[in-house]
Each structure stands twice: as C-alpha cells, then as structure tokens.
Design goal:
mainly alpha; Four Helix Bundle (Hemerythrin (Met), subunit A); globular; 10 helices; two-stranded antiparallel ribbon
C-alpha cells in the first residue's frame, strides 16, 4: 500500500518558516558581532542585541505555529518535523553560539564543549518529544517532559539582554557573563530531565477568562513591554522553577495555574 504524502498546511508552516528565518538571522548577527568585537565594540553590542531579539521573535513564531495548527485542526507529521528542524536552529544553535562568543576569550575550549552539550541535549530532547508524540500522543497534549527548548533559548536570550542592559555603555558584560556557561549546562540537564511542564496547548482564541484575570494578564503584558530589559527573564525563570516545584503543589493549585487541564485533573481526583 502506497503511503499518502504528508500534507503541508500554509499558515502554521509559514509561522514555522518565520521561526527558522529568525534563528538563521540571529546566527548571522552573532557571527557579525563576533567579527566586530575587536574593532567596533558599540556595533558588536548592537549585533548581539539584534540577535537576542531575533531569538525572542523565533519564540513568538514557534508559539503561533502550534496555535494556528490546533485552531484549524491542521496538525500533521510534516509540521511536527519541520517545527523541530526550525527549533534546533533558533533555540539550539543560536543560543549556544551566542554564549560561546560572549565567553570565548577566557575559556575557549571549555565554552566550546559546554555550547555543544547544550546543542546536543536540545536535539535529543526534540527527538524524544517527536518519538513519544508518534507512539503515545494522548499523554503529550497537556504537559511537556523536560524543559522545552524554546523556553530554554528564551531564558538564555532574556538573561543576556538583562546583562547587556546592566552593562550599558561599558561595551562588555563584565564578570556576570560567567553566569551563562553554567546556565547552559543546567538547562541541558533540565531539557532532558523528567520534570513535567504545562504546555498550555489548550489555551486558544476560545479560552474564556473572568474579567479580573483578564485584566491581570493585560497588566502583566503591559508591564513586560515597559520593562523589556528584565521582565522576560523573570517570566522564563518563573516557568523554569514552576516545573521543579510542580510535583509539590496541590491539585487545587495546579488546577488554578493550569486552568485548561482542570477537567482532566478533576477526573483523576478520587
């Protein structure tokens, strides 16, 4: 029996292509910044800033492609594989290269190894996710096993943005840049760990919220935009810590935080 060709849905895969474009452009900006570091520190810092925004832009595109696919019922094996290939560029290669370039001068060999470990763990995490999704998709609708690689890249990019903001006018990150390699190793472990993280996949355009909660979400978004230098780092750190603490939270707390899977938790409650 001949296999049917995989379907390619336009809008979700356009978002994935946007993700890949941002990752590719971020990589180019990092390389340009590396070439300029010794001759024009100001321009090099601008290139690194641009790379950070492209990584965060890739995060937005990655968020949208899954939402559009689920909204239209257009999830497909092709889309899942295309998304993973884009993710390894945007959230694996670009952040690893960024940290490698920032801390390269002091520890070239060690930083090279750390950056590769992060990239390899990110690739294996994506491979594990795709493999598990093929064989047991029902268990992967509401939670992720291991810290998602887009969130890991968002955390690295947002913390680097915060460090650049702290060192504004100094043309370098100072000693705080040495936080990045250990962070890369820690995230490598977290991506391949068994900690459970809410996917929030059920949150879509039809999701209903009470007026107070809606206003709180709007205020958080406005506050994040007004304090873009450090607030994204706080949000990504909060998500990272939530997965670690999640197993110690009561069902009621998890139901409040992960409202879209409240019915499933309620059904499991004896």
């Amino acid at each position: 029996m001949n296999e049917q060709p995989s379907k390619i849905y336009l809008l979700p895969n356009l978002m994935t292509a946007g993700n890949l474009f941002c990752g590719f452009t971020a990589t180019l900006r990092i390389l340009e910044g590396a070439l300029l570091q010794s001759t024009n520190a100001d321009l090099a810092a601008d290139r690194f800033h641009e790379a950070i925004w492209f990584v965060l832009g890739a995060f937005v595109f990655d968020f949208l492609d899954g939402r559009l696919a689920r909204l239209g019922g257009h999830e497909s094996p092709f889309g899942r594989e295309f998304d993973s290939l884009a993710d390894i560029v945007s959230f694996g290669l670009a952040p690893a290269l960024m940290v490698y370039r920032v801390v390269l001068q002091e520890f070239p060999r060690a930083c090279w190894i750390i950056a590769f470990v992060y990239l390899a763990c990110g690739a294996m995490r994506l491979a594990r996710f795709n493999s598990d999704a093929k064989h047991n998709a029902a268990n992967h609708q509401n939670t992720f096993t291991g810290f998602p690689i887009p969130a890991a890249a968002g955390l690295i990019a947002s913390i680097t943005l915060f460090l650049l903001w702290l060192a504004e006018g100094e043309h370098h990150l100072g000693n705080w840049r040495f936080v990045l390699p250990p962070l890369l190793l820690f995230l490598s472990f977290m991506m391949f760990s068994r900690f459970q993280y809410p996917s929030f996949k059920a949150v879509n355009w039809k999701t209903k919220k009470s007026i107070p909660r809606f206003l709180i979400i709007i205020l958080v978004l406005i506050f994040t935009v007004l304090n873009y230098e450090w607030m994204p780092a706080v949000l990504f750190l909060a998500y990272l810590l939530y997965g670690v603490l999640r197993s110690w939270l009561s069902r009621e707390w998890r139901r409040e935080i992960e409202e879209e899977i409240g019915e499933e938790i309620g059904e499991e409650t004896p």
